[in-house]
Design a protein that fits this description.
Number of domains: 2
Strand content: 25-35%
Shape: globular
Distance between the termini: 8 Å
Structural class: alpha+beta
Helix content: 10-25%
Largest sheet: 7 strands, mixed
CATH topology of the largest domain: Nucleotidyltransferase, domain 5
CATH superfamily of the largest domain: Ribonuclease H-like superfamily/Ribonuclease H
Radius of gyration: 19 Å
CATH class of the largest domain: Alpha Beta
Strand order of the largest sheet: 6-5-2-3-4-1-7
Number of helices: 4
CATH architecture of the largest domain: 2-Layer Sandwich
Protein backbone atom coordinates (compact mmCIF):
# COMPACT_ATOMS: atom_id res chain seq x y z
CA UNK A 1 0.00 0.00 0.00
CA UNK A 2 1.40 3.33 -0.93
CA UNK A 3 1.75 6.14 1.55
CA UNK A 4 -0.89 8.84 1.64
CA UNK A 5 -0.82 12.61 1.86
CA UNK A 6 -4.26 13.83 2.94
CA UNK A 7 -5.61 17.14 1.70
CA UNK A 8 -5.46 18.78 -1.72
CA UNK A 9 -1.99 20.28 -1.88
CA UNK A 10 -2.33 21.51 -5.46
CA UNK A 11 -3.67 24.86 -4.26
CA UNK A 12 -0.93 25.32 -1.69
CA UNK A 13 2.52 26.70 -2.30
CA UNK A 14 5.15 24.15 -1.27
CA UNK A 15 8.04 26.49 -2.05
CA UNK A 16 10.34 26.96 0.96
CA UNK A 17 10.43 30.40 2.49
CA UNK A 18 14.18 30.27 3.03
CA UNK A 19 13.67 31.32 6.66
CA UNK A 20 11.92 29.92 9.69
CA UNK A 21 11.45 26.37 10.90
CA UNK A 22 8.91 23.77 9.86
CA UNK A 23 7.26 21.84 12.68
CA UNK A 24 6.33 18.18 12.45
CA UNK A 25 4.58 15.73 14.75
CA UNK A 26 5.20 12.08 13.89
CA UNK A 27 4.06 8.80 15.40
CA UNK A 28 4.16 5.08 14.74
CA UNK A 29 2.32 2.15 16.24
CA UNK A 30 1.94 -1.62 16.07
CA UNK A 31 -1.00 -3.78 17.13
CA UNK A 32 0.65 -6.79 18.67
CA UNK A 33 4.22 -5.47 18.81
CA UNK A 34 5.19 -6.91 16.44
CA UNK A 35 1.96 -6.81 14.47
CA UNK A 36 0.18 -4.78 11.80
CA UNK A 37 1.80 -1.35 11.99
CA UNK A 38 1.53 2.15 10.58
CA UNK A 39 2.83 5.65 10.95
CA UNK A 40 1.37 9.15 10.81
CA UNK A 41 2.86 12.64 10.61
CA UNK A 42 1.67 16.23 10.39
CA UNK A 43 3.94 18.90 8.89
CA UNK A 44 3.27 22.59 9.53
CA UNK A 45 4.80 25.71 7.94
CA UNK A 46 6.35 28.53 9.99
CA UNK A 47 3.16 30.57 9.55
CA UNK A 48 1.06 27.75 11.04
CA UNK A 49 -0.30 26.45 7.71
CA UNK A 50 -0.64 22.67 7.56
CA UNK A 51 1.47 21.50 4.62
CA UNK A 52 0.99 17.74 4.77
CA UNK A 53 -0.46 14.79 6.64
CA UNK A 54 1.50 11.59 5.99
CA UNK A 55 0.12 8.12 6.71
CA UNK A 56 1.15 4.62 5.67
CA UNK A 57 0.54 0.98 6.54
CA UNK A 58 3.84 -0.83 7.09
CA UNK A 59 2.88 -4.49 7.23
CA UNK A 60 4.14 -6.30 10.34
CA UNK A 61 6.79 -4.68 12.52
CA UNK A 62 7.38 -3.42 16.06
CA UNK A 63 6.28 -0.13 17.61
CA UNK A 64 9.84 1.18 17.59
CA UNK A 65 10.37 0.34 13.93
CA UNK A 66 7.10 2.09 13.07
CA UNK A 67 8.21 5.19 15.01
CA UNK A 68 11.39 5.34 12.94
CA UNK A 69 9.44 4.83 9.70
CA UNK A 70 7.33 7.85 10.60
CA UNK A 71 10.41 9.95 11.24
CA UNK A 72 12.04 8.83 7.98
CA UNK A 73 8.92 9.68 5.98
CA UNK A 74 8.82 13.12 7.60
CA UNK A 75 12.49 13.84 6.93
CA UNK A 76 12.16 12.68 3.32
CA UNK A 77 9.07 14.83 2.65
CA UNK A 78 10.65 17.96 4.08
CA UNK A 79 13.86 17.53 2.11
CA UNK A 80 12.06 16.65 -1.11
CA UNK A 81 10.14 19.93 -0.85
CA UNK A 82 13.27 22.00 -0.33
CA UNK A 83 12.94 22.98 3.32
CA UNK A 84 16.13 23.12 5.39
CA UNK A 85 15.05 23.61 9.01
CA UNK A 86 12.84 21.25 10.94
CA UNK A 87 11.64 20.70 14.49
CA UNK A 88 10.14 17.26 15.14
CA UNK A 89 7.96 16.20 18.07
CA UNK A 90 7.53 12.48 18.83
CA UNK A 91 6.03 10.54 21.73
CA UNK A 92 8.76 7.88 21.40
CA UNK A 93 11.24 8.70 24.15
CA UNK A 94 13.52 5.89 22.93
CA UNK A 95 13.77 7.26 19.38
CA UNK A 96 14.17 10.86 20.52
CA UNK A 97 17.02 9.95 22.86
CA UNK A 98 18.68 7.75 20.23
CA UNK A 99 18.54 10.48 17.59
CA UNK A 100 19.89 13.00 20.09
CA UNK A 101 22.75 10.65 21.01
CA UNK A 102 21.67 10.05 24.60
CA UNK A 103 20.91 6.34 24.09
CA UNK A 104 22.92 3.76 22.19
CA UNK A 105 21.24 1.90 19.33
CA UNK A 106 21.86 -1.78 19.98
CA UNK A 107 18.84 -3.27 18.19
CA UNK A 108 19.72 -4.80 14.79
CA UNK A 109 16.25 -3.77 13.58
CA UNK A 110 16.63 -0.14 14.61
CA UNK A 111 20.29 0.43 13.80
CA UNK A 112 19.89 0.76 9.99
CA UNK A 113 16.84 3.01 10.44
CA UNK A 114 18.77 5.21 12.87
CA UNK A 115 21.63 5.44 10.35
CA UNK A 116 19.19 6.43 7.57
CA UNK A 117 17.67 9.09 9.81
CA UNK A 118 21.05 10.50 10.81
CA UNK A 119 22.09 10.63 7.16
CA UNK A 120 18.96 12.61 6.23
CA UNK A 121 19.37 14.92 9.23
CA UNK A 122 22.87 15.84 8.10
CA UNK A 123 21.28 17.42 5.02
CA UNK A 124 19.44 20.04 7.11
CA UNK A 125 20.72 23.47 8.06
CA UNK A 126 18.92 23.08 11.38
CA UNK A 127 17.23 20.13 13.05
CA UNK A 128 15.74 19.49 16.47
CA UNK A 129 13.72 16.58 17.86
CA UNK A 130 11.94 16.55 21.21
CA UNK A 131 9.66 14.28 23.19
CA UNK A 132 6.02 14.92 24.07
CA UNK A 133 3.38 12.77 25.73
CA UNK A 134 0.90 11.04 23.44
CA UNK A 135 -1.98 13.41 24.18
CA UNK A 136 0.17 16.21 22.71
CA UNK A 137 0.79 14.15 19.60
CA UNK A 138 -2.83 13.19 18.92
CA UNK A 139 -3.06 14.13 15.23
CA UNK A 140 -0.05 12.01 14.28
CA UNK A 141 -1.36 9.21 16.50
CA UNK A 142 -4.73 9.39 14.71
CA UNK A 143 -3.07 9.14 11.29
CA UNK A 144 -0.99 6.15 12.41
CA UNK A 145 -4.12 4.37 13.63
CA UNK A 146 -5.96 5.20 10.40
CA UNK A 147 -3.07 3.60 8.48
CA UNK A 148 -3.37 0.44 10.59
CA UNK A 149 -7.14 0.43 10.06
CA UNK A 150 -6.68 0.64 6.28
CA UNK A 151 -4.07 -2.10 6.27
CA UNK A 152 -6.17 -4.50 8.33
CA UNK A 153 -9.43 -3.80 6.52
CA UNK A 154 -11.10 -2.01 9.44
CA UNK A 155 -13.68 0.58 8.29
CA UNK A 156 -12.37 4.12 8.68
CA UNK A 157 -14.15 6.39 11.13
CA UNK A 158 -13.84 9.36 8.78
CA UNK A 159 -13.08 10.02 5.13
CA UNK A 160 -10.26 12.37 4.06
CA UNK A 161 -11.16 15.15 1.66
CA UNK A 162 -8.64 13.91 -0.87
CA UNK A 163 -5.86 11.36 -1.15
CA UNK A 164 -2.66 12.00 -3.10
CA UNK A 165 -0.07 9.20 -3.51
CA UNK A 166 3.05 9.77 -1.45
CA UNK A 167 6.21 7.61 -1.34
CA UNK A 168 6.56 5.45 1.73
CA UNK A 169 9.47 5.64 4.12
CA UNK A 170 12.74 4.19 2.76
CA UNK A 171 12.85 0.41 3.01
CA UNK A 172 9.34 0.08 4.40
CA UNK A 173 7.97 -3.49 4.10
CA UNK A 174 4.75 -4.20 2.26
CA UNK A 175 1.98 -6.67 3.07
CA UNK A 176 1.73 -9.92 1.15
CA UNK A 177 -1.15 -11.18 -0.94
CA UNK A 178 -2.61 -14.66 -0.66
CA UNK A 179 -4.37 -16.34 -3.58
CA UNK A 180 -6.66 -19.23 -2.64
CA UNK A 181 -7.48 -22.08 -5.03
CA UNK A 182 -9.80 -24.31 -3.02
CA UNK A 183 -13.52 -24.36 -2.32
CA UNK A 184 -13.94 -22.30 0.85
CA UNK A 185 -16.32 -22.94 3.69
CA UNK A 186 -19.42 -20.84 4.29
CA UNK A 187 -18.60 -17.23 5.01
CA UNK A 188 -15.22 -17.51 3.30
CA UNK A 189 -14.13 -15.77 0.09
CA UNK A 190 -14.92 -17.57 -3.17
CA UNK A 191 -12.29 -19.92 -4.61
CA UNK A 192 -9.59 -18.25 -6.70
CA UNK A 193 -10.24 -14.81 -5.22
CA UNK A 194 -7.16 -12.68 -4.49
CA UNK A 195 -6.93 -12.01 -0.76
CA UNK A 196 -4.70 -9.61 1.15
CA UNK A 197 -2.75 -10.51 4.23
CA UNK A 198 0.64 -10.66 5.86
CA UNK A 199 3.06 -13.31 7.09
CA UNK A 200 3.95 -13.51 10.76
CA UNK A 201 5.97 -16.28 12.42
CA UNK A 202 5.68 -18.33 9.24
CA UNK A 203 1.87 -18.19 9.15
CA UNK A 204 -0.41 -16.31 6.74
CA UNK A 205 -2.85 -13.89 8.41
CA UNK A 206 -5.66 -12.62 6.18
CA UNK A 207 -6.95 -9.07 6.47
CA UNK A 208 -10.56 -7.97 6.77
CA UNK A 209 -11.70 -11.03 8.72
CA UNK A 210 -11.39 -13.40 5.74
CA UNK A 211 -10.98 -17.12 6.47
CA UNK A 212 -9.96 -20.26 4.57
CA UNK A 213 -10.58 -23.98 5.23
CA UNK A 214 -7.82 -26.07 6.78
CA UNK A 215 -5.42 -27.59 4.27
CA UNK A 216 -6.04 -25.05 1.51
CA UNK A 217 -3.03 -24.18 -0.68
CA UNK A 218 -2.14 -20.51 -1.02
CA UNK A 219 0.32 -18.61 -3.18
CA UNK A 220 2.20 -15.78 -1.51
CA UNK A 221 3.08 -12.84 -3.74
CA UNK A 222 5.24 -10.18 -2.00
CA UNK A 223 4.12 -6.65 -2.90
Amino acid sequence: MSGTLFGDSSSRSAAPSGEGWLAAHCDGGSRGNPGPAGYGAVIVAPNGEKLAELSDFLGVCSNNVAEYRGLLATLAWVQQHGYRRLRVVSDSLLMVNQINGRYKVNSPDLRPLWEQARQLIRGFEGFEISHALRHKNKDADRLANEAMDRGTGKPAAGKPSAAIPYPKAPGAPKPAQASASSTPRAGSPSGGQMLRGFVRDGSVHLLGGASLPDGVFVKIIPE
